[in-house]
Write a structure and sequence with these properties.
Layout: E1 7-32, E2 35-59, E3 61-65, E4 82-84, E5 86-90, E6 94-98, E7 108-112, E8 117-124, E9 128-138
Antiparallel strand pairs: 1-2, 1-9, 2-3, 3-4, 5-6, 6-7, 7-8, 8-9
């Protein structure tokens, strides 16, 4: 695999579908041992949602910004939502790296440079699954205020 020495500054907007954790809580009443008992039940699951992920590559470093819906409650610090891409490898065909999202969760990122397809996968016992599939396109970073 040939690594590129340096890539030009690149900002990508990646639109796709992410797996978003959800929590539902309900009160339940049941009959047990001749008595009515009441309790609460909490169910953790996930749903899919249309989202946008941003990726920025500057030379041989990069960073990623996930939408809030994909960021777990227990998470690592970030710079206004941007997280550094670690172990970044840039080849002619793909960009690949990982980032720290939370305790034990280092999602893996792969972007196919020929198709624009982005895939993010990560998992942690504490924060659950991080999953996103999308298509990236380059965007111009604003240099002047829009208004």
């Amino acid at each position: 695999m040939m690594l590129l020495a340096q890539a030009a500054a690149l900002l990508l907007a990646c639109d796709g579908v992410g797996e978003v954790p959800t929590t539902d809580t309900a009160n339940v009443t049941g009959f047990q041992n001749g008595e009515f008992r009441t309790g609460r039940v909490t169910v953790h699951s996930s749903t899919t949602k249309d989202l946008r992920v941003m990726v920025e590559i500057l030379g041989d470093t990069g960073r990623i910004r996930l939408p809030e819906e994909l960021v777990p409650y227990m998470r690592s610090r970030s710079d206004e939502g941007w997280r550094p891409l670690n172990d970044l490898r840039l080849t002619r065909e793909q960009m690949e790296g990982s980032f720290v999202l939370g305790l034990g969760n280092r999602p893996h990122v792969v972007i196919d440079r020929l198709t624009g397809e982005l895939r993010i996968r990560g998992t942690s016992l504490l924060t659950g699954t991080t999953s996103f599939d999308g298509v990236c396109r380059p965007v111009e970073a604003p240099t002047e205020p829009l208004f």
